[in-house]
Records
---
Amino acid sequence: MAQTASQIAGSGSAPEPAPDSAPRILSLTGVCKSFGALKVTDEVSFELPQGQALGIIGPNGAGKSTLFNLITGNIAADAGRIEFLDTDVTRTPPMSRCLMGIGRSFQIPQPFDKLTVFENLLVAATHGRKLSEREVGSDCAAILDRTGLMRVANSPAGSLSLLQRKRLELARALATDPKLLLLDEIAGGLTDAECVELVDTIRAIHRGGTTIVWIEHVLHALTSVVERILVLDFGRVVAVGPPDEVMASKEVREIYLGIEV
Amino acid sequence: MIGADTIIQGVLLGGLYALFAAGLSLVFGIMRLVNLAHGDLIVLAAYLLLVVTTALGLGPFVALLVAAPAMFVIGWTLQRVVLNRVLGPDILPPLLVTFGLSVVLQNALLEGFTNDSRRLRAGPLETASVDLGVAMVGVMPLMTFASAVAVILALQWLFYRTELGRAFRATSDDPVTASLMGVKPASIFATATGIAMLVVTIAALFLGTRANFDPTIGPARLIYAFQAVIIGGLGSLWGTLAGGVIIGVAQTVGAAINPEWQILAGHIAFLAVLLIRPRGLFPRAVD
């Protein structure tokens, strides 16, 4: 049985369990956001221990991307408290949160089309970490290598295929040297083979110690990496727990998969 | 009547127009801001050079070293305090604000310097010339053209070879995403306008040493700059130089036929290019 929203302490089990005693990197307490009369985030609370990968699932319009926008600061919360590394960041502007170590990839890749792939990383790395290009050059090259973009390093980002754009999205988020990496439907729209490739890359990044929150519709991609899954519906946390338990829960199957059980 | 001499004069004059246009093109390229006060800012820089030369007794080229940083600060502040506030999806507010700025600048200069024609004195350089074989060419026009080429080379280097240039291009591409990466569009834009004002000061130097100026000539310089940018194709700096050269040559050829036709010929050349190549000669093919 999956834990309910009130039992929010993590119990990691899958691939590389992060101990519960690990310091929490992110904590949301009673976070609310409405657009007009529509409550898109309703009293969302959860904690994320350092080093864990958390998957977020939910039907379209459940408020998943809004939750990311609240964490990155692109949208201000109406109520509640967001803490990152034990600092209250509820009112911190997005850029400062980026500098603190929150990196993000977008659902629809938004690379700088006119810049080369390498330049995209340079911009993210120099500004996201307040370092000079000389200092970040070798890091950027290493990230290109990890994300399989070395071959297209000097091509304009606008000329990339979808998989490559997704990889660049990931690489660019990594270039800011995030302590917390937010992935927004990065596997969406990819073929199965491409998806497997990308998941391998993400798993390697997670093994490297990066804490990840990952919104994804492609469930098998998600469950093969994350230790916990959080289910959102109508802006509320419906369940949170290890993937197999959450996916076995009757409530989740009804809400998320629309399956009559 | 229309010999190599006329053409060469026109090409060199094109260098001046390219200098007018380079700053305009830079600002438009990075923040999609059409600065209607660009011509008046050139005139402002010319007066600033005049003040520095007369007050400190410096030559105009040395005065550039004082005036250019001052213009950078003016541009930076203008962008930071005024123009950043009006940038947005709607292009009308920046047009209105820069149009207003143009009126304010003209009247302020009129108040401060009267409408007497002024000139920057460059000493013996003004009349110096070299024999290129086919024609005798003034040293100042040659320097103007060489400066235009140097400015464009420097801007190209800045854009494609430096960290600041990458930040310029990233912000121009997508300011929202750039800000998520930690780029600050507001200060990037301010720096860009500051750099445009450095170019404006160089343009003002050659404007003021070549001919007389008064507070009202700004808008006409803006039009030449626009024409050069549009003939060249928006966003292409070398295209801007080509555009300047086309207008310059058209003007000198027009003037050689009939002195009254100088300005008209430039406008006709502009219209002719627009008819044949509506997107300009060198539209940015890649992006």
Note: The longest helix of chain A spans residues 192-207.
---
Amino acid sequence: MARKTIKVDYLARVEGEGALTVTIRDDRVTHAELRIFEPPRFFEAFLRGRAFSEAVDITSRICGICPVAYQMSSVHAMEDALGVKVAKPIRDLRRLLYCGEWIESHALHIYMLHAPDFLGYQGAIEMARDHAEIVKRGLDLKKTGNALMSLIGGREIHPINVRVGGFYKTPLKRELAVLNDSLKRARDQALETVRWVSGFDFPDCQRDYELVALSHPDEYPLNEGRIVSNRGLNIGASEYDAHFQEIHVAHSNALQSRTREGNAYLVGPLARFSLNFQRLTPLAQDAAKEAGLGPSCSNPYRSIVVRAVEVLYACDEALRIIAGYEEPDRPFEPAEPRAGVGFAATEAPRGLLYHRYRLDDDGTILEAQIVPPTSQNQATIEEDLTVFINDWIDLPDEALKHRCEQTVRNYDPCISCATHFLDLRVERG
Amino acid sequence: MTDKQSGILIVGIGNPDRGDDAAGRAAVARLKALGPKNLRVIESDGEATGLLARFSEADEVILIDAVLSGAAPGTVGRFDVNEAPLPTGRFGISTHGFGLAEAIELARTLGCLPRRCVVYAIEGRSFTLGERLSPEVETAVEGVIESILNTISLTAG
């Protein structure tokens, strides 16, 4: 019996480690295992015994690329536990901060990590030799996202200005207006990005995913909304644990999420887009249509186009928020400690990020649960590999390995497998 | 990339919560206290495009990063990257593995590598979450600071 094992053994990395093994028998993929060694589990333990006010800064250290997502899910969950309601300007600023993170995170993935897969380059450096102006556009676009994060978050990496109830310091209207010019430029660049990536060659791969994302009646979801699916799910964050479970799998120290029925599901740009197309701005909707996307998308290889549409939306939305911003009367609402449980889900660039905290009466954290998007997508990534890779089974080993990596990168997983610098091996049995 | 300033920019790279990975950031924090008042230092998580954006800010950039290459912990390598790319080693141990070595090569390709660009690489022992610098790396950090302060005074003189 012909048996082949494709292994991608990742170098140990500080911010996250992962490895991939795909087993092929008699020209069929029989098994795919994505192994993730990720930090949220340790953080859940660190958080116990800390004050409710500390979670925002502790959890923002989980990820260098999406600290805002962790900050947002944690403050919303704490406010849920403590019964704090924030004023509109604070809500707007949080949304604006999140737009900054979407722009910088998506731009990084599109230009530096994912586009080289489609254009046949080993990585962004090689791509830059032939496409310097395009790479510079990506860097400039990302820089605008970073500028937005620096202004509202207090600094570019691991923002420090967010607190339960609001912010330590809120910007003046004229301070925000400074960003208008670069955001307008970024919006043009984002539109060019949508057109650029929509011209890539995409494999014709579709799957009938269970798509899960937030949904809000008035806006494309970032900070708020019900958790909905294309299978009729419609729940609040407090019901998350009743519908989803985290399972220990032997090959990964990340917990793997599934529905309570045991099914894999998909979070992230594809799910958000497909469940919320009507809430995109007209500009973003038109760009999506022009790029060949319908009101839904179930081809994960096209996720790069959906990310580009979301960058366009984030630029558009950031400009709208800045135009309508009124300085708040005070930067934050006071929060009084009390015993309780708080829940929140927000839309990290990679998908739904769920936090739950149980507090005692002086606000000490007794229990913390953090479910990041990558562990929710892990089972779906493994299924994608099992299904799609069969179409390319006759490719030479190197090309096949590349397809496997590309398939993983469709999800922009928050582990080092997003890199192009992997130690790759093929073992034949 | 138009806001070019002259002078030296010193960048300390790493994750402050990951043991010896914090070496570069510890070094620049101390340089800030010890060096001349107008010394420009920044801390970075090592993400390549963020680093690249800062390269345009100075004629000369000195970068300090932790590395795992198999050498004895505390070993310091000094690399003039205008001369040659960084040797293969685990530089830029950073989020998504797109770090210092990639930032330098991307800058070289795009023609925006600073006129002078030097990397100090400090071999780490442990990169465990929540740990302090190991003693060998503490000593190495002091050595790097001294070397940089000497360079700066020579340049200024």
Note: The two ends of chain B are 29 Å apart (CA to CA).
---
Amino acid sequence: MINKDVEKLLLKVQKPGRYVGGEKNSVIKDKDKVDIRFAFCFPDVYEVGMSHLGMKILYSLFNSKENIWCERVFAPWIDMEELMVKNNIPLFALESGDPLTEFDFIGFTLQYELSFTNILNMLKLSCIPIKSKDRTELKNIVCAGGPCACNPEPIADFIDLFFIGEGEEVDLEVMELYRQCRENGDSKEDFLIKAAQIKGVYVPSLYNVEYNKDNTVKSVTATHNAPQKVEKRLMMNMDDCYYPENFVVPMIEIVHDRAMEEIFRGCIRGCRFCQAGFLYRPVREKSAEVIDRQCHTLCNNTGYDEVSLSSLSSSDYTKIEELLTRLTEWSKDEKVSISLPSLRVDGFNDEIIDKIKTVRKSGLTFAPEAGTQRMRNVINKNVLEDELMETCSKAFNGGWTKVKLYFMIGLPTETDEDVCGIAELGHKVVDQYYKCEGRPKGKAVSVTLSTSSFVPKPFTPFQWEPQATEEQLKAKQHLVKESIKTRKITYNYHDSSTSFLEAVFARGDRRLCKVMELACERGFHFDGWSDCFSLEKWLELFKECGIEPEFYANRKRSFDEVLPWDHIDYGVTKEFLINECKKAYNSETTLNCRQKCSNCGANKWKGGVCFEKRKSMV
Amino acid sequence: MKNVRVWYKKDGAARYISHLDVNRVMTRALQHSKLPIWHTEGFNPHPFITFALPLSLGFRGVKESMDMRLLEDVPEQEIISKLNQGLPQGIEVYKVTEPVMKPGKIAYGKFDIKLSSDAKTPEELFFMLRSLLTQDTIEVEKHSKKGVKLIDIKPQLGDYTLEKLEDCVQLVITLPAGSVNNVNPSLLVTALENSNSIEVYADITRLDVFNEEGKSFE
């Protein structure tokens, strides 16, 4: 529902379709007939938030319950924000048009660290106090979940409770507890103390953090009987796990404008830089039959003519061929195309080529991640140069002329040789093109090399590593650029200053809350957007707060240091991560979960890949 | 194979989407409907649809149309209900006919413009608008791909009625609309704003489009 006051602003802003709701499949309920109103907030613009699968799953799940009404809220873009502030219009939810103060829960999804300022800004735009302790009543419970909840500490002062791990069950349990507490007339504090007893719930206000003189964490102590370690929640049976039959279909173009089907959670690979690879262990697959059915239902209900199979590494799906066969049975006739993102270099076989060839021939993207074999061994990206060349040959012979390769720079132990290796690999791919007999005749090859700056993340074997400094990263970017000798290669690199801030917040502690608070006061928002981000302004803030950001980004931690996120438990043991880190220093690789169990700790959930029969055993 | 003209309304939340968005929304509704639509046969097959005349973002439309090609005969009611099942609120198909006129023949549009302002009463607005419309020239900046240019829209104005309602002023006016000559009614709103240094809220509805002879598009 569009509020009258909002309507007057709509023709003065870019893309007003962001603020009007009314899409097909959006859910409208009678607010007087529900017990709980949940505002699902995505701290970025509509087009980004609407592309997020997690939100689609939880939105449908919550709304499938008769007594819950879940609505969507996005961060208004800066033009709209300005007009809303000027006209005293508080932030509103798209379905009802109601301000956030009317909601029982205000839930944020934490997808990237640079969206943290948007969370506080969205609370501010809603006229809701940003600090948890200033919200005293049992209403407007501010909660958060998603990957960045793995280190919740930099926003611990603002969020009442965090959901650790997968939300399908725990979110509903917390909402039910809230309903009971409200009926009993409990206080907000009573509710939070009780909520902390639910597995997967972290209530930061119930934990005391002490620091050492050198500002490292000395201890984190649970109070009010809260668990000393908060263990993540996860869904073990993906076939039985709730999956939406319907997506809200946006009217304006969004980033990923297609149906999405999750094919498995987790990743067998254990690349040492990749946080998702450790957070979502163990790998749990959906059966091909269920995926096929869900894809078909989604396309039928939305009218999308494209469905993307979503996972961390789609070619690792064990029954990929069976799945593609099932899907093509109906998708061809119904003119639906299937896309397979996140293909590994070594997973690009003829079968897959044939299947995706029927779809539009855009560029192909692979992520070798590092330029030399030594470096790839360090990060455990078990891809060989020969495999990359073979894959590129297949692609070129299959008619592709555009290849994009993703790399990281600033990886632990990286040398100039490794950095130059990125350009060299690009040259080899160009040469490979001209060696291919089956290449499209008369067409030039185009190879794009992209580098991003490595950000060490919690719960990875590199969580103790310093991030390379901005000067070092710039020098590395320069080195890649200088090493490229042909115009058939394009080089893109990601700005290193945002990576620096990302590194600070990724491994930050509660001392950063005061920086966040000041950032909110000063009107910081959309740090993930170059339109708004300014490292200079951030550095000023840090200075004012007496905090050295380098302490978080560029400092090497020792294995025995208490890390700010040590009281959060994702199942992967610290011993395993230490061992992986040591192996990285020796350029030793670790086999993937399907080859050999490396005893990471995730088998305690008694399911998934940990209990699959390995090929070598059958 | 049969060409049909699908008539729909654009209102509610959907009035805030652009013409390109309408195209996408319609394509998706067609996919959803599973109606036997002819697809283009190029490299990238897609349902073949054409719109009579794009409607500006923010305008309501009560008689919008889209042409498509059916591979076999389908009853009108079936087309209407199947398409509406796949459309968002605000876009509603209400009629399917055989195309009579070519979209290229469209020359005029009739618009209902409701104007209000926080700073002025409907009465004050009424007089401001009346004096604007009776000026010898109405100069306004027109933004196009080639840049900004100052044009006089006065000679382009067609018949109009002006009325003061309870909470707004209503102007119903015919303006050139089409691929050759086009005067967007929002230019008139801008002219009103500029000549009086006020901010005006305009609620614009396209009522109909006509050919050169003034015959309603069908």
Note: The longest strand of chain B covers residues 60-70.
---
Amino acid sequence: MKRIFQSAYLFFIYLFLYIPILILVVYSFNTSRFSTNWQGFTLNWYRVLFTDGPLMEAFANSLIIALSSSTIATVLGTLGAFAFYRYRFLGRQIMYSFVYILMMSPDIVMGISLLLFFITLGLSVGAVTLLLAHVTFCLPFVMVTVYARISGFDRNIIDVAKDLGASELQMFRHVMLPMLMPGIIAGWLLSFTLSLDDVIVSFFTTGPSFEILPLKIYSMVRLGIKPEINALSAVMFLVSLFTVTIAHFIIAKENR
Amino acid sequence: MVRKSRFRNFAIGSPMLWIAIFVVVPYIIVVLFSFLTRDPEGIVRWEFTLANYREIISPVFLRVCKNSFILALGTTAITLLTAYPFAYILTRIDENIRRFLLLLMIIPFWTSSLIRTYALIILLKANGILNTLLLSLGLIDEPLSILYTETAVFIGLVYTLLPFMILPLYASLQKLDRSFIEAARDLGATSRHVFFHIVLPLTLPGIIAGSTMVFLPALGLFYIPDLLGGARSMLIGNFIKNQFLTTGHWPLGSAACVILTLLMFMLLLWYFISTRKAHSGGMETVR
């Protein structure tokens, strides 16, 4: 009896979380433009979506930013995680807590602070500022993901490499990097997802000259619901579903 | 001893420099702006003032704050009360199923909350699924108008932020040492005793972490009321956004950001203190 009740509880929570998304996906195939009634299956909204010039441009922009910012953040974050593990340096402890604070800090504060920073520097917001902002909020997530893997390592491995005459760079390149690869890939995938989905930080750090998908969706939804947005949202959900699932399996496999 | 190689300096320097330039310096600028003067023409002048902070304790802002705080506290309370038993049940489940269920929770955690908010609109609107369903079941006679009310904003916040409460709680319940519970039971403690004197204090860090991850975004997620709520349901996030986009009162917006950051530091401090206590005090409770 208790077990049934427990299973039912889990089931209802998952239902609550997934029903809206499922409806969204199902309705992206509905023929009817306005009504909630099911009027037949169509791929028309996807066709509309993929022939919409400005939307496709925003999609391309989002992809460029997500690919490049997650790559830069992964390089920096991997170096940072390694540095935290391997070296003792001035301000290490402060920086370490800062990484965690950064993950917790409200998006809006980061967005505003970067906006004011760019304005102070005299930079106008666009592709470059957006890239810098995305690298910044992805960075701590990569650091934490890679650090979680590196902190489980046997420190003797480093000593062995050093005893055999490897320089710091060689040891990092030939010993650490291959062992860290799963963590690095997972960190990259999570950054990619974060970057692709971000609304709040992007809202303040890009302008009309460089539009990205989430902001485009945001301004479209304010004007009302369109079946193309259903299709677009379904596509974006599937992208996150895909990247997060892979990242999850990579991390879960390590921990086993 | 590690020799100070060029690689060492690069590995430490590049990420730390990035954080210094793009996080520390911008925060300093926000703090600086929060003390600047805005003249009647709307131009920000380099003149030190406390007026922005004074304005923040003015009735207008306090009303926004109060509304936003009540919404955020309500969201935190509801998500905590639903998530705690959920996370607890999850830790007791067979490992193979649990791994899959955990993934099902991680997916919405990472999925764009904008898209999830949009999905809610389809569900809640007057001729949406929920109303159609309730009408056809005969449970209601006329469509409920939930969308564009404060209730919709509340539902939206709970819906978007629930995974952010569940995952930290799950992590801390997972780490809970079961031998404490068994020991207490052997010594004759009731279920209530075990829960309030052992499980709850030991998982307090998880509760605070989850609450922080729900409470802070619940103050800031400005697009949720923009999309789901009427004009009246304003979050602190909307207030800040308006200062920068419509009113052009940057110093006031900056001051609100500073307050939000201070709030975060207080919550994080509480988290660290509770972690210490859970590590040392947990033992004492059992002793």
Note: Residues 217 and 223 of chain A are 10 Å apart (CA to CA).
